[in-house]
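ok trying again, last paste got cut off:
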Amino acid sequence: MAALDFEKPIVELESRIEDLRKMSSRRVTLGPEIKRLESKLAKLKDDVYAHLDPWQRVQIARHPKRPYTFDYIRLMTEDFLELHGDRLFADDAALVGGFAKIDGIKVMIVGHQKGRDVKENVMRNFGCAHPEGYRKAMRLMRLAEKFHVPVVCLIDTPGAYPGIGAEQRGQAQAIAENLRDMAGIKTPTVAAIIGEGGSGGALGVGVADRVIILEHAYYSVISPEGCASILWRSSLKAPLAAEALKLHGEHLIKFGIVDEIVPEPLGGAHRDPAEIAANLKTVLVKHLKKLSSLSEEALLEARYKKYRAIGEFIEK
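nice, full thing came through this time. structure:
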């Protein structure tokens, strides 16, 4: 498994334990030594992951082995049927979606999708959607509204694609229209930040009745590197920017931006995809059931109040 810099002592110890287990299987009694190292490993993990700084958590959110949208679809849904195209220009592989069932609840699931290797990352544009991706997402949400099906959005993008082609095809307008239309869509919506939640690229599918975030995911107006480049003229100040941006769940809960934090396995979602998928599924089902009990009028009124309240403050 790919190791982050601060995880290298953990990976080295895990490798030693694995080597001893292989030797032990050859009738060499190494049980006591393995137990000693396992105890040391457990303590080391607790020490490392209990004291992560914001920049280290951003690195976990970007881990190349972290589960992506299709992984969650595979692990927590049934009968997924992918739908394609925005009916205007093209099908964007960076933003995917379709009908599915979560614990028997019919949903429209929409999410950013990154790649696992260079070829797939180029095809998926590293999870950075074009205007046609956001227009496809809105088309699918309108379809869900038509059939009275709730919408689940899985957010994992460093930001919307800023290339000239995307700008020529109306990137800003596509995102702005999604913000407007998601605010008024007449069906329950739940958004979950599963990795990176960068800028308008994340917000373009993030105006939901409930917004939840995984423990080590982040949600921010700009990436730490982008912030550092603007404020300090150096991307090397990204760790300082990550601290200043207050981009993790604990701060976002206080600001009223997210509604719940989903706990991850020790070390991050990539350590146990099945466990994090089960945790996320439980939280999604809980919110979907609560929202589905509301009338259309009550749903829209609550959504309006939720977003009007964000950003309120009192000067002393």
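cool. The chain has a mean pLDDT of 92. The first helix runs from residue 8 to 24.
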